[in-house]
Amino acid sequence: MKRHRRIFSAGLPLCLLLFLLPVAGHGSPAREIGVLKFDGVINPVAAEFMINGIQNAVRSDSEALIIQMDTPGGLDTSMRAIIKEILNSPVPIVVFVAPSGSRAASAGAFITIAAHVAAMARGSNIGAAHPVAMGGQKMDETMSKKVENDAAAYMRSLAEKRGRNVKWAEEAVRKSVSISETEALKLKVIDVVAEDMDDLLARLDGWKTTTASGEKVIHTKGLKVAEVRMSVRQKILALLSDPNIAYMLLLLGMYGIFFELTSPGAIFPGVIGGISIILALYALQALPVNYAGLLLILLALGLFIAEIKVTSHGLLTMGGIVSMVFGSLMLINSDAPFLRISLSIIIPAALLTAAFFTFLLTLALKAQRRVAVSGAEGLINLIGTAQGPIQPTGKVFVHGELWDARSSEPIQPGQKVRVVKMEGLRLTVEKVKEDS
């Protein structure tokens, strides 16, 4: 009995230890570091993607979140929403301008300066942050100065908060200066130059920074790297936000409505056109639309429809094509190249539209000139045979049928006659001369 008690006393702690080990292992899950990759224009979809990524990193208590970015810039409102989330994040946010050949221009420069850690890859550049007109009309000198001063003050405050080069930050806004990664590191605009993501992770290990919740030391050694991806919804919305896609959707919607109006009851073109127009309007609401350009495109649609209803011998079609080209060029009013519709899209669209409506016009003119083959018009000028004397009335055989006929001159039975006119069910005919 004593022997059994000694075995039980010695084995009990060991059993408890074995029982608690799995619990301890599952009680503290391994931490991770998130990597969010973004390549494109800073717009509402980009803002939603980055803000969601930061919020998820905070909820999962990630060690840090790395935003790998390559952007030509974008909208001021979207940029400020992203920066606000970065400044208030308790999780360190690292902005990495990568891979090689990438840039952080305009809004991208602001976001990089606002990061807890700013890094760049070899062969990348940063700067050119001067604000450009993002509305449907040009800014006057006073308004332009106000916008520039506001952007410069915002950039200065971000640089001061992160201890970066304030003078260069302001020049990036006022003079649109842009520098390479080597110059950026030398001027203390950024903190790190890394070859790739692995090199960056190695350099970040042990890095001290100050977040919204206080001082934080980043540990990357041995941590799991979790890539943050766009949802399907965000990918679709990002595609729709492209000015070229928005323009093509607008044209597709116009063509669909045109076919539905000219061929009532087809249904399919109308459905496709309606959906395309709604998607185009969603995309255009996030872009600096010039409403004069939009009205010109709608006028072009009206002129094309009028060409089918009114005989203008191509003048309405030409007016529609000119209206569509100028409307397309004016539709997006921005100095930023990435917000403009590409000429490689506008010119083929105009040429295809011109070819299509020229083809329709040709068919319409041929139909107008074609001789009628049915009804009263189809009998005019047909040759028939007199079935008896016509003095001045009688019977003629025309087009396989026997008709009552009238003639202003006597016609003998068996003579050839030509139909001149039809009045009710009686034909007016004339004798066919021998030389005819």
TrEMBL record:
<dbReference type="InterPro" id="IPR056738">
    <property type="entry name" value="NfeD1b_N"/>
</dbReference>
<keyword id="KW-0472">Membrane</keyword>
<feature type="domain" description="NfeD-like C-terminal">
    <location>
        <begin position="376"/>
        <end position="431"/>
    </location>
</feature>
<dbReference type="Pfam" id="PF24961">
    <property type="entry name" value="NfeD_membrane"/>
</dbReference>
<feature type="transmembrane region" description="Helical">
    <location>
        <begin position="315"/>
        <end position="332"/>
    </location>
</feature>
<keyword id="KW-0812">Transmembrane</keyword>
<feature type="transmembrane region" description="Helical">
    <location>
        <begin position="236"/>
        <end position="259"/>
    </location>
</feature>
<dbReference type="InterPro" id="IPR002810">
    <property type="entry name" value="NfeD-like_C"/>
</dbReference>
<keyword id="KW-0732">Signal</keyword>
<feature type="domain" description="NfeD1b N-terminal">
    <location>
        <begin position="43"/>
        <end position="228"/>
    </location>
</feature>
<feature type="signal peptide">
    <location>
        <begin position="1"/>
        <end position="24"/>
    </location>
</feature>
<dbReference type="Pfam" id="PF25145">
    <property type="entry name" value="NfeD1b_N"/>
</dbReference>
<dbReference type="InterPro" id="IPR029045">
    <property type="entry name" value="ClpP/crotonase-like_dom_sf"/>
</dbReference>
<feature type="transmembrane region" description="Helical">
    <location>
        <begin position="290"/>
        <end position="308"/>
    </location>
</feature>
<dbReference type="InterPro" id="IPR056739">
    <property type="entry name" value="NfeD_membrane"/>
</dbReference>
<dbReference type="GO" id="GO:0016020">
    <property type="term" value="C:membrane"/>
</dbReference>
<protein>
    <submittedName>
        <fullName>Nodulation protein NfeD</fullName>
    </submittedName>
</protein>
<feature type="transmembrane region" description="Helical">
    <location>
        <begin position="338"/>
        <end position="365"/>
    </location>
</feature>
<dbReference type="InterPro" id="IPR052165">
    <property type="entry name" value="Membrane_assoc_protease"/>
</dbReference>
<keyword id="KW-1133">Transmembrane helix</keyword>
<dbReference type="Pfam" id="PF01957">
    <property type="entry name" value="NfeD"/>
</dbReference>
<feature type="domain" description="NfeD integral membrane">
    <location>
        <begin position="244"/>
        <end position="362"/>
    </location>
</feature>
<feature type="transmembrane region" description="Helical">
    <location>
        <begin position="266"/>
        <end position="284"/>
    </location>
</feature>
<dbReference type="InterPro" id="IPR012340">
    <property type="entry name" value="NA-bd_OB-fold"/>
</dbReference>
